From TrEMBL:
GO terms for cellular component: plasma membrane. The chain crosses the membrane at residues 6-27, 39-59, 92-114, 126-147, 167-186, 198-218, 230-248, 255-275, 281-301, 313-336, 356-377. SUPFAM superfamilies: Ammonium transporter. The keyword Cell cycle does not apply. It comes from Embleya scabrispora. This is Ammonium transporter. Its main location: membrane. It is a multi-pass membrane protein. It holds the Pfam family Ammonium_transp. The keyword Nucleus does not apply. InterPro entries: Ammonium/urea_transptr, Ammonium_transpt, Ammonium_transpt_CS, NH4_transpt_AmtB-like_dom.
Amino acid sequence: MDTGNTAFVLLSAALVMLMTPGLAFFYGGMVRVKSVLNMLMMSFICLAVVTVLWVLYGFSMTFSTDAFGGVVGNLDWYGMRDIGVAELWDGYTIPVTVFAAFQLMFAIITPALISGAVADRTRFTAWALFVAFWVTLVYFPVAHWVWAADGWLFEKGVIDFAGGTAVHINAGIAALALVLVVGKRVGFKRDPMRPHNLPLVMIGAGLLWFGWFGFNAGSWLAADGVTGRALINTQIATAAAMLGWLFLEKIRDGHLTTLGAASGAVAGLVAITPACGALSPLGSIALGLVAGAVCAWAVGLKYRLGYDDSLDVVGVHLVGGIIGSLAPGLLATGHVQSDAKGLFYGGGFDQLGKQLIGVGAVLGYSFVVTYILGTVIHKTIGFRVSEDDEVAGIDRVEHAETGYDFAALGGSTRPTAGIGTATGAGAAAPADTKVDA
């Protein structure tokens, strides 16, 4: 075993773990003030639920010997028994335990990504139950397809360096299925539902960007030239995507917003994830510019098509994941991660066809299973809070807490009408008060 590679992957695992609290802040700042704690908790509960399931059977289902023709692993490693500290597999120089810890962080953040789509209206217990079933029925099998040595997409030659299909397309299409089940927020298209704390959004985006270096570069499981290419491509595409988003925003709306900068950066991070080891730096610029502009356009589809994706998970993660997953079929140089070449580098349509198969398979499987799972939960225990509770404030109803103590600012101890608290939530705010609850 190589101690340098082992230390690098351990550090990368810690960086990826930090992305889940970063996501919580990113999403938490984007919701209304009455939902911020619930939004934070929807990410944090994934750390608990998925960790336990990963130990019990998730790691085994994902990476043990294939059981059903490339679909899912067997349960030989249930409870992580017998994995010890041995070397991973031939050619890899890190312990199995380190690899298991690194991959656990991917399993945690993937369902957390979905949470933004159903913000402001989801029962917390129903969400926790959904996470448990979703990672079992969707994430573990799809991750096996993509990353296990005998997974069927891996054997087919689909390039997914760090999770364009298994993480972002998987979460993005699941988010679409779930919002169709759960339905729209009260006041969708009618009431302003602006972010309540943009500095928190920017902090979250910064933590995501920082952690993403472990997410992408760490996925090579070694510290070498490929790792360096993955890291620099991650930085390049993210920067380009921010510019692409802001350019479209300026042309379309006449403004350059902090929310657009943060969202553009995340769109670039999403898009480069599957392609960071296959593209050149110039290819990464092109990918980032396209992903930033297209995702900025795609977030408006929910108003045209009528689905209520609260925090634009579909527009950023699904659309960005598809763009990034197809990128190796067009822009793979054949010189870094593998010898596969994209269409623009003389490789013809071969790799692009493989990428299309991977994208289509994950889209179809994740949507169908998520829709069925969401429907079962919704029809049994109920997936969303009542309309009155949603209007009053989901933080008070679900957690008996509020994110901000407005009484501490002085004056009346009675919560101010219109700030999304249970008391006075139905009253109109004063004319000179501009508060989006």
